[in-house]
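Let us practice reading a record.
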Amino acid sequence: MQMRAEDAQHILKTLSTTDVSDALDRLGIDGQCLGIAPLDRSFRLVGQAWTLRYAPTGVDAGTVGDYIDDLAAPQVVVIDNSGRTDVTVWGDLLTSTASRNGVAGTVIDGVCRDVDRSLELTYPIYSRGNFMRTGKDRVRVDSIGEPVTIGGVRVSPGDWLLGDGDGVVAIPATRTEAVLEAAVGIRDAEAHIRRAVEHGATLRDARAEFGYHRLQTPR
């Protein structure tokens, strides 16, 4: 039986991407999305993936899609635009609608635009950057609700995404419980080390006592 979504969401809100990254390493799961960063380091994102893939247009003009009206919390819009930085697939109107609907955030393997709206609404966007050139008539919706690739990581619908100032990690839905259990243990061990140092212990001794060097070692 998979962990309940409410429980997973609650635990993820107490974790950092570094906690989860180390847990993914321990379990041999590739979930660190390379090159995907927040527009603002204060952003945090927790939710389950709703996936969309774009492809270049052919002879016929494409569409960027009117999907956003159907989404709500705790979904995260996960867009695979093949890492393209020359055309954007997310802007002001999508940000405004997603924020109104309570969507948890947007993760793009590509770029966005209208950054000021995201910052104004504190709507979390994680991407490869920003650029003003529209993707309309340059890309088309290729698939919805299928696995996509984000920063070299396969993300399937329903997988969990956690984002903070260090980037984004993806957790396969089928491994959620194991990853979160490991991440909580790693977080707690590092908290013990931190407290020991604050009370006068050397970092070397505190790390040895709480097994720091084995925290992310595969088991």
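A brief commentary: Residues 30-171 form a domain with the Glucose Oxidase; domain 1 fold (CATH 3.50.30.40).
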